Amino acid sequence: MSLAGSLDINSARVLVTGGSGFIAGHCILHLLEQGFPVRATVRSLAKEGSVRAVLSEAGMVNGGNLSFVAADLTHDDGWQDAMADIDFVLHVASPVKPGFVGNPDDLIVPAREGTLRVLRAARDAGVKRVVLTSAFHAVSWGHPHDDHTFTEKDWTLLDGPGVDAYGRSKTLAERAAWDFMATEGGAMELASMLPVAVMGPVMGQEISGANHLIAMMLDERMPGFPNLFIPIVDARDVASAHVLAMVSPQAAGERFLLSNGPAIAMKEIGATIRAKLGTVADRVPTRSIPDLVVRLGAPFSARFRMIVPDLGYSKKTSNEKALRVLGWTPRDPREAIVAAAESMIAKHPG
Questions:
Q1: Which pLDDT band holds residue 350 (cuts at 50, 70, 90)?
Q2: Cβ-contact 128, 185 below 8 angstroms
Q3: Beta strands per DSSP E along the chain
Q4: Which end of the chain is more exposed for a tag (fewer CB within 10 A), N or C?
Q5: Mean of the per-residue pLDDT values for the chain?
């Protein structure tokens, strides 16, 4: 495999931040499969055993090439050690909590300041390239509901309607990263990844990302389907895109929107699960919730209030740049839906 610059796969070492997370876990699995020595950050080394167990259960190969170091986004301690002898960084760690947050700074500050902390440490250690996990939340929120197709050129409008604390945190963190690179980045390179709703095989017992929607369908917490459309990408494809952006010389200085196909109606997501899983998915609802019911319930339900602005609106996305520049080949998003549901049922068969 040809790496960015002149490095060879046998000498390139990769740091993955937030090693206990969902996307980070899939990145670690993919990197190890590709033969890279990987170091992962966790907030406490007491987590190493449980993280290794989760990765092993998920099919980890070359586990001897994986090591851990303690580092926290909110503190400087540990980052110098984490970056020692590292060539590439996948900065995946960031607080994730879409929807209402009592104090937005609980998300915004660690996301933005943590990103800058990682970038400074990487630059000081001579890291060649950082691949930053941003999000579609940094692209498409706050815009008018029209026929626009979102690309990497778009940025979330922070003062626009429907922008929550998580969307602000991802947007401000990525903006801060690009500003840092322009003024303080030195010779280091940056690429950012902008995945839409991430689904796919769960890691361990925790349900992360958009997999929460599938979990709610499976355990009867979703009585019916609101008129919402979800753009979906598989976690395994998000991981492969990160590694492609790490090794591709053309990826330096670029953003990449990670999506695959039109947004999928919530009702179709449920129908896909029922069709593929049969009787074990009997609890997945079949009825729709009319828009009027959602709007009338919004004053009394935080969940309904959150989704009212997006009722009936299907965001259009383009993954042309990731396909062209990275040679990325994502799978059908319905595979992510089914894989997520199957993995949840396997862990909780009752």
A1: low
A2: no
A3: 14-16, 38-42, 66-70, 88-91, 129-133, 149-150, 189-195, 197-199, 229-230, 232-234, 255-258, 264-265, 316-317
A4: C
A5: 92
Distance CA(146)–CA(140), nearest Å, equals 12
**Amino acid sitting at position 67:** S
CA distances from 3 to 88, 119, 128, 199, 321 (A): 10, 20, 11, 28, 19
CATH code for position 66 = 3.40.50.720
Residue 145 lies in a domain: yes
Number of domains forming the structure of the chain: 1
- Summarize the confidence of residues 203-221 as an average pLDDT: 91
Name the nearest CA neighbour of 165 among 88, 110, 126, 119. 110
Domain that holds residue 128: 14-205+231-263+315-332
The residues that bridge with 38 in the sheet, in sequence order, are 14, 66
- Please tell me the pTM assigned to this model: 0.94
The amino acid at 36: F
Domain membership flag for residue 284: no
Chain centroid to CA 201: 13
- Tell me the sheet residues that pair with 303: none
Q: Is residue 79 part of a domain?
A: yes
Asked if 221 and 5 count as a contact pair (C-beta separation under 8 A), the reply is no
User: In this structure, is residue 163 part of a structural domain?
Assistant: yes
Which residues does 46 contact at the CB level (< 8 Å), separation at least 6?
none
* DSSP symbols for 208-220: -TTHHHHHHHHTT
- Cβ atoms 142, 160 nearer than 8 A: yes
| pLDDT 10s digits, 227-280 | 999 999 999 999 999 999 999 999 999 999 999 989 999 999 999 999 999 998
CA dihedral (162, 257, 271, 282) positive or negative: negative
114 SS3 class = helix
Half-sphere exposure of 333 (CA within 13 A, CB side): 23
